[in-house]
Design goal:
The chain is an alpha+beta fold. It contains 15 helices and 14 strands. A hairpin with a 2-residue loop joins strand 5 and strand 6. Helix 10 runs antiparallel to helix 11. The termini are far apart.
């Protein structure tokens, strides 16, 4: 179904008509929250005619309010994940056929059957059983910073978050520890392809360089699991059957990539932004360190700093949303970075408050694609916050953090900190 380059039903919104939401200059320091605030108030379902950095790409609808994001998320028959991909870009970084090999890029019924293979391994009880192992990984990583020789500070992204999340998801996937760094490099370059620090060669290198290496590394793991099945998630993929048929190599590899990428990016992103928020607000630090508001810290970090700024659907038929007519084939982008700060849901939404106790859409907004790893993400975040602040309750910023330049992954790429004596 062909996507249209312009939408004849885009109602006038004054000066917002010419706004292009995905424009590099707007994303230098993370999501453009002021723009999203204006869109929520004046044009909550907004049409961007193009994506400047990718002129061959068609325009898209931005959905910015929580209520509308919820509606799109739950109506998979009208808003498809399979038809055109899961990000605002279609095939610009990763070919569409590879995206469709992941269950996040599928529609029911196949999506439901493939996702169900992993549901049993991600129940809250099963995840809770992993807490001692996750805490040991976090403690070991932080212990190494204590020396000898003891370090006065570090980059919280590279030295703490990355090694912890890599080992946690690596243990679930059956990856040996010595391969953690290589897989982190591949995931960072693929997910943050538009940021020159994460991928110096840009988006075009993902198909040319990262994906061939990913497939080569995965083939070794696949062959090992075929000969010697284990209880890790890679083995589940290798031996899974859908409608009596085994998954293809492409489906196995991309299922592996989906789980590894989610484990690599999501917790790392939210942990680092949450730590930054605590370091910038002494009252919030006190509530957490002295008041034990760790669960509140987890949930408020998820609300204010969702690891993915957006996911995308494609309209399968004409539909009405927020007073706009969306035509079949058009892109519909759900901005969680906006919906999680919706004034209709959250009072004073730009204020970080660990006592807020509010619902959010960091894991999606319901429906078939609600995040499989919610229990793991919450546990991992709580453990990482607890272990870090137990050792370094007076940890402080030591320079300017840098945000990944991306309208998709919402994360810091550097977070320099110093440890108090």
């Amino acid at each position: 179904m062909a996507e249209q380059t312009s939408s004849p039903e885009a109602a006038p919104a004054g000066d917002l008509d010419e706004v292009l939401v995905i424009e590099t200059s707007r994303w230098q320091d993370g999501p453009p929250h002021e723009l999203f605030r204006e869109l929520r108030g004046r044009c909550p379902v907004h049409w961007s005619a193009s994506i400047p950095e990718f002129p061959e790409q068609d325009g898209f609808w931005s959905v910015t309010r929580a209520e509308d994001v919820h509606a799109v998320s739950r109506d998979w028959e009208t808003y498809s994940s399979e038809l055109g991909g899961i990000t605002a870009l279609t095939g610009a970084v990763m070919p569409l056929e590879l995206v469709r090999a992941m269950f996040i890029g599928m529609d029911p019924p196949k999506h439901d059957r493939l996702k169900a293979l992993f549901q049993r391994g991600f129940t809250p009880k099963r995840i809770a059983d992993h807490e001692p192992a996750i805490r040991a990984i976090a403690a070991d990583t932080l212990d190494r910073l204590d020396g000898p020789p003891a370090r006065e500070g570090c980059d919280l992204v590279a030295d703490v978050a990355q090694p912890i999340v890599s080992r946690v998801i690596g243990s679930f996937m059956g990856i040996p520890p010595e391969d953690d760094a290589a897989w982190a490099r591949l995931m960072n370059a693929s997910m943050g392809a538009g940021d020159r620090d994460l991928n110096p060669d840009g988006p075009e290198s993902v198909v040319r360089r990262e994906m061939p290496e990913i497939f080569a590394r995965c083939r070794e793991l696949i062959e090992a699991r075929r000969e010697n099945p284990t209880d890790d998630l890679t083995s589940v993929l290798v031996h899974a059957e859908i409608d009596g048929e085994r998954l293809s190599e492409q489906e196995i590899v991309m299922g592996f990539v989906l789980l590894l990428a989610a484990g690599n990016d999501s917790t790392k992103a939210t942990y680092c932004s949450g730590m930054r928020a605590v370091m910038e607000d002494e009252r919030q630090r006190e509530l957490v360190v002295e008041g034990g508001e760790y669960d509140g810290l987890v949930e408020e970090s998820l609300r204010m700093f969702p690891a993915f700024a957006h996911f995308r659907r494609t309209a399968t038929r004409d539909a009405e949303l927020g007073g706009r007519t969306i035509r079949a084939g058009e892109k519909v982008v759900m901005w969680y970075a906006s919906s999680n700060r919706d004034e209709a849901v959250h009072s004073d939404p730009d204020r970080f408050d660990v006592t807020r106790r509010a619902e959010h859409q960091a894991f999606g907004a319901g429906g078939r694609h609600f995040c499989l790893g919610t229990a793991l993400a919450r546990l991992e975040l709580r453990v990482m916050f607890e272990e870090t602040l137990a050792r370094h309750p007076r940890i402080a910023l030591d320079g300017s953090p840098a945000h990944a330049l991306s309208p998709w992954i919402n994360q810091l790429k550097t977070l320099p900190v110093r440890f108090a004596p």
